[in-house]
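Researcher: Go.
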Amino acid sequence: MMEHIRYDIAPGVDAFTSVRELQLPYPVICGHQVHQDRIAYVDRRDLTREDLEGYDVFVTDLKDCAIGVRTADCIPVLLYDPVHKAIAAIHSGWKGTVLQISTKTIAEMSRRFGSSASDLLAVIGPGIQKHNFQVGEEVVERFREAGFPVGDIAHWEGERVEGTMHGGWHIDLIEANRWILLQAGIPAANIQSSAICTYDNIRLWSARRDGSACGRNINAIVMR
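Model: Structure:
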């Protein structure tokens, strides 16, 4: 039987990435994301996308309240605090990654819920992988200026081949987001990363492959 992509985070926590052939198993609160770093506290279960205009992160401590982010190559990050019972869903495209949006989310969880980074459990969900994420040199420079270890996350692959993903600069957004979580204090053993590339996997939406008007993958987390 076909299923959504599910993550084994912890008992009592359901987390998944939707696939394009299936309906969501339950309603998921999402916002209208804008590739910035605003964080919304979800304090009730009837919030709409219009209520959450302009937010790229959602945090809550409500049980049975699924929160999620919409992606189509950007990187979703899901966090769970098993001590203070709180969760977060983070939309981290390359712009949000440069802004270190996950670091700001962890700080917000600490302020609002008392969370400690050392307790958090994290999932880095499906997104565009390094071999398909071809960028201009100006994007690499943005990462360098933001303090990322560019030698570890950016790679020059020779002369660019027009109309393909071959050659040019490539950035490893998965590793960049993992680096952010480690720098923030989440133990490496608490971070799981998906090996699924949205560009390669036709069960998932990819803006680079399908066009920017394509559907979106829903990356959700809920406490029971």
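Model: The chain has a mean pLDDT of 96.
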